[in-house]
C-alpha cells in the first residue's frame, strides 16, 4: 500500500518484548512508524501495545490505521518539565547500535488508556541521526506530515504538550488518532487512516 503512494521503507525490526515489529517511513522532519503484531508472545509485564493495535485494526476497514502519535522536543528540559507537570514517568531508552540512537520518552502507557494523548520524545542527537532523516526508496518526494486528525480533548493535549502541536486538528470523540495527511513536493497529499 505504501508503494502505491510513492513511499518506501527505510528499515524495520522486531521490538523486543511487545510482540510487535516495526517499519520506519522517513518523511523529512517527521516519520511514520508502522507497527504490527508479529506473532511473538508479548511480555505481560510490559504495556499491552499489541492488544491496543489489534483493537484499532478491528475498528477500521484498511490496514494502515493511526494508533498512537509522538511529539518531539528539541529541548530535554521541556520534556522533563511537561512530564513533571503531568505526573508522567520518564524513561531513558539506550541506543541500540548505529542508526538506533537513544532517546528520552514520557507518557508511554497512559496514552494507551487515553489514546488522544501523545508520547513525548526527545532525541539528544542532530536531525541527521533521527528517523525522519533516514533514506528510503521513495518514488515521490515527501515533505512531511501536514495534518494529524485526533479525536480527543484539546485541553488535555495542550496541558500534556504545553500547546496544541503544529498540524494537529481535533475532531469530536475520544478515539485518538484517526488519520494522517502526508505532503509531497511532487504532487497532491495523501491521507491514511479512518476517513
Automatic annotation (TrEMBL):
Q: Which domain of life is it from?
A: Bacteria
Please report the stretch or stretches of sequence annotated as the Glyoxalase-like domain: 4-156
Looking up Pfam families in the UniProt record yields: Glyoxalase_3
Protein name per its UniProtKB record:
VOC family protein
Amino acid at each position: 500500500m505504501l508503494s502505491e503512494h510513492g513511499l518506501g521503507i527505510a528499515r524495520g525490526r522486531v521490538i523486543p518484548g511487545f510482540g510487535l515489529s516495526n517499519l520506519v517511513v522517513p518523511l523529512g522532519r517527521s516519520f511514520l512508524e508502522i507497527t504490527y503484531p508479529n506473532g511473538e508472545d508479548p511480555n505481560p509485564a510490559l504495556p499491552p501495545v499489541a492488544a491496543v493495535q489489534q483493537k484499532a485494526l478491528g475498528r477500521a476497514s484498511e490496514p494502515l490505521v493511526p494508533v498512537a502519535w509522538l511529539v518531539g522536543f528539541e529541548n530535554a528540559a521541556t520534556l522533563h518539565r511537561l512530564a513533571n507537570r503531568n505526573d508522567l514517568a520518564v524513561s531513558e531508552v539506550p541506543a541500540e547500535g548505529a542508526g538506533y540512537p537513544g532517546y528520552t520518552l514520557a507518557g508511554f502507557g497512559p496514552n494507551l488508556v487515553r489514546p488522544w494523548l501523545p508520547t513525548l520524545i526527545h532525541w539528544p542527537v542532530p536531525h541527521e541521526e533521527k528517523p525522519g532523516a533516514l533514506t528510503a526508496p521513495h518514488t515521490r518526494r515527501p515533505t512531511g506530515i501536514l495534518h494529524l486528525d485526533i479525536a480527543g480533548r484539546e485541553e488535555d493535549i495542550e496541558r500534556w504538550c504545553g500547546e496544541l502541536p503544529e498540524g494537529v486538528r481535533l475532531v469530536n470523540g475520544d478515539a485518538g488518532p484517526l488519520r494522517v495527511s502526508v505532503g509531497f513536493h511532487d504532487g497532491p497529499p495523501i491521507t491514511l487512516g479512518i476517513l
